[in-house]
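hiii so um. not sure if this is the right channel but i have a protein structure encoded as tokens and i wanna go backwards to a sequence. like what aa goes where. can anyone help
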């Protein structure tokens, strides 16, 4: 079991600096866990015969860095009141989160062998009433940031210093409720709130900029009184640096990390292909994809606007 309680080092940073052997080991470990997330996603999707591959692959490095480096939690005490909260607003990526929760000790990994079968707690979207380690039942898009604002306000009322992380899809940013939540977070100066946008540029219906443009995204958040950082969401060093630069929880600006990602990252046939939002692998394709993931990430253009 992994029992993580984040501690800041003497230099004010949580992570060893770039270029050190310690840092290289950490990044190697996280890359291995991101690979594990992709492999497990492919394995589990075979049970129902289809799955949300691409929106999970775009978030693999985010999941790995949060659960194996950044978040504080106690798997043997899932309701620990001082734990960091994680709201997976893009709940359709739960297929990649379940294996992580099992791996760190929230429940028996064997339970995942019945993923989506009748009677299983593990559906396509996560259920906080049935699954240890899930803080919010998500999947109906556009709600996660509002819930996260509530959790961040609760920490203030209760005098606790946990952070609330919200992983939002970029497609769901077209929903008005997200921006009401963003406005409230800025107004109340929720410095303990961290939104990570998985900016993979696609939703189920096509490119976000064709459907309902959300750029300039950094400027939008800034105008709602947020601190903004924009990174390559597959670059583990960049992700760790972004976590290290978060302001302490308190009455500061809420913080957003816009993670420029590639939908389907790690499997060439799926990268940037809207048709794989929900897809099905079969036969020889399955083995090819496993081999490709096993080989590790190859260089890719994340397509970030650099805004
Ligand atoms: Mg998207």
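sure thing!! here u go:
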């Amino acid at each position: 079991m992994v029992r993580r309680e984040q501690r800041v080092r003497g230099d004010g940073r949580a992570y060893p600096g770039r270029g050190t052997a310690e840092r290289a080991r950490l990044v190697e470990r996280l890359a291995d866990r991101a690979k594990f997330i992709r492999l497990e996603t492919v394995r589990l999707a075979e049970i129902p015969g289809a799955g949300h591959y691409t929106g999970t692959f775009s978030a693999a490095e985010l999941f790995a860095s949060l659960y194996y480096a950044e978040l504080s939690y106690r798997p043997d005490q899932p309701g620990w009141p001082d734990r960091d909260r994680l709201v997976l607003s893009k709940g359709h990526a739960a297929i990649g989160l379940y294996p992580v929760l099992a791996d760190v000790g929230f429940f028996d990994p064997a339970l995942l062998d019945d993923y989506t079968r009748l009677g299983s707690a593990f559906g396509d979207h996560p259920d906080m009433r049935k699954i240890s380690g899930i803080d919010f039942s998500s999947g109906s898009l556009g709600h996660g940031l509002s819930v996260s604002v509530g959790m961040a306000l609760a920490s203030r009322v209760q005098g606790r210093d946990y952070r609330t992380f919200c992983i939002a899809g970029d497609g769901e940013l077209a929903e008005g409720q997200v921006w009401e939540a963003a406005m409230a977070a800025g107004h109340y100066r929720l410095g303990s709130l961290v939104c990570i946008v998985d900016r993979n540029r696609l939703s189920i219906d096509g490119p976000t900029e064709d459907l309902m443009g959300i750029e300039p995204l950094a400027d939008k958040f800034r105008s709602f009184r947020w601190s903004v950082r924009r990174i390559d969401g597959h670059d583990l060093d960049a992700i760790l640096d972004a976590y290290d630069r978060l302001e302490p929880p308190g009455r500061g600006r809420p913080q957003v990390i816009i993670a420029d990602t590639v939908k389907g990252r790690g499997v060439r046939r799926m990268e940037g292909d809207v048709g794989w939002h929900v897809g099905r692998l079969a036969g020889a394709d399955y083995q090819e994809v496993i081999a490709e993931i096993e080989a590790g990430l190859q260089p890719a253009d994340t397509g970030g606007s650099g805004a």
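oh and The beta strands are 85-88, 164-169, 193-199, 202-203, 206-207, 227-232, 255-260.
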